[in-house]
Amino acid sequence: MNYIKLKSIDSTNAYVKREYKHLGHYSVVYALKQNKGKGRNTHIWDSEPNKNLLCSILLKDKILISNGPMLSIYTAVAVIKTLEKLKLKNISIKWPNDIYIKDKKICGILLESKSINNRIEAVIIGIGLNLNQTKFNKEYHATSYKLETHKDIKIEKVLSLLIKELEKILSNKFNYTSFINKHNFLKNKKVSVTIKNKKVMAIALDIDKTGALKVKYQNKIYLIDSNEVNLIIQ
Ligand code: BTN
Known about the structure:
Layout: E1 2-6, H1 12-19, E2 27-31, E3 53-59, H2 62-65, H3 70-85, E4 91-94, E5 98-101, E6 104-116, E7 119-129, H4 145-149, H5 155-172, H6 177-182, E8 190-195, E9 198-207, E10 213-217, E11 220-224, E12 229-232
Parallel strand pairs: 1-2
Antiparallel strand pairs: 2-3, 3-7, 4-5, 5-6, 6-7, 8-9, 8-12, 9-10, 10-11
This protein binds biotin.
The site of biotin has 21 residues, from helix 1, strand 3, strand 6 and strand 7.
């Protein structure tokens, strides 16, 4: 495990993508400030400097990176277990990549990969976890460790807990289906998904063992993979 701390960077994910050839498997890069933090689907990831955990973990092991969508579920499990260790309550995963406390987002996960000739060479797991920030743009519906507990916490303490959990999970690769379904935010909620190239409203059910979301539409069950989900209606 190799930790790299950056005072300021465009985005830790972008940094690891640029530098991945010179970095080892399991390198962990974290920054106190991002000037161009990336979220999913071209969103930006806003974070006050020095307040939150902004990190990217590089995976280069071929077998590990062949786990596809499960890597994002494993990361979500590691974040949930870390937050449980920090005594937070009402934690859930809003499939595929958001971690919520009640109905507010505390953490976003962005997985990116680096391919050469269509072969994935590396996976970058980006995690933005809100810790000591207390003011957020209303439209984000966000929360943080401090808003939930009224306490400050050291970024490095959370990072080391998180990396320990993630390493444990990635080396065991147990079946986390039942764990994740106990924390399934979307269960029985209406979701807008794409089925046979058509956007439809369906009912979310469980997350299956491959990391896909089961939904019910017109009395049939469909499996949705993480690229096919659009707007979520609660
Ligand atoms: C999302 O919910 O849209 C995913 C957000 C991921 C944000 C993290 S912060 C550290 C890493 N570097 C980035 O530019 N993005 C991820």
